[in-house]
Specification:
single chain, alpha+beta, about 35% strand, 3 helices, about 160 residues
Length: about 160
């Protein structure tokens, strides 16, 4: 069960000859438009009332990217972001064309308390990053998910089968 301070999401990864790559989402809208370092996120969102967090993670990934994820999934636990939100995450291995993602739309008042409402994609773009770059692009707390994934993949990360619990 979740509330407004709890989100759930998925971290898509792929293994290439040059190494591990991670699929991240950049939030849409005017607040995030000029932000890059520390602004990216794993595709995630709030659970609906009564919705399981894992089910919410899968749903949110699909809504924010237009990509339907598939298992197996690897639980990465949760992190608490600086603003107080707890994010629960699972990883899955796959591939996607980051240039062909499609996000759902959201509506927000901008500037806040202005009475002016804007509609825009919740995610304005997605991209693949190596782990080091992804760790700088991500919200700092979410960078822990990369470390956890790398630990779970082990020293043979690029060749090891996905070990599920």
């Amino acid at each position: 069960m979740a509330n407004a301070t709890t989100s759930a999401g998925l971290l898509l990864f792929r293994r290439k000859e040059r190494g591990l790559e991670l699929f991240l989402a950049h939030p849409g809208g005017p607040f995030w438009a000029e932000r890059d370092v520390g602004a990216w996120t794993i595709p995630k969102g709030l659970a609906n009332p009564g919705e399981d967090l894992f089910d919410a993670a899968v749903r949110e990934f699909g809504e924010e990217t237009g990509i339907q994820p598939h298992g197996p999934y690897l639980e990465l636990g949760s992190v608490r972001q600086k603003a107080g939100k707890t994010v629960h995450a699972w990883a899955w291995e796959g591939d996607a064309d980051s240039d062909k993602t499609q996000s759902n739309l959201m509506r927000t008042e901008w500037p806040r308390n202005s009475g002016r409402w804007l509609t825009f994609p919740e995610v304005d773009r997605c991209a693949w990053f190596d782990p080091e770059t992804a760790a700088t692009k991500l919200n700092p707390a979410q960078a822990e998910f990369i470390a956890r994934l790398q630990t779970r993949l082990g020293p043979e990360g690029l060749n090891a089968p996905l070990a599920l619990e």
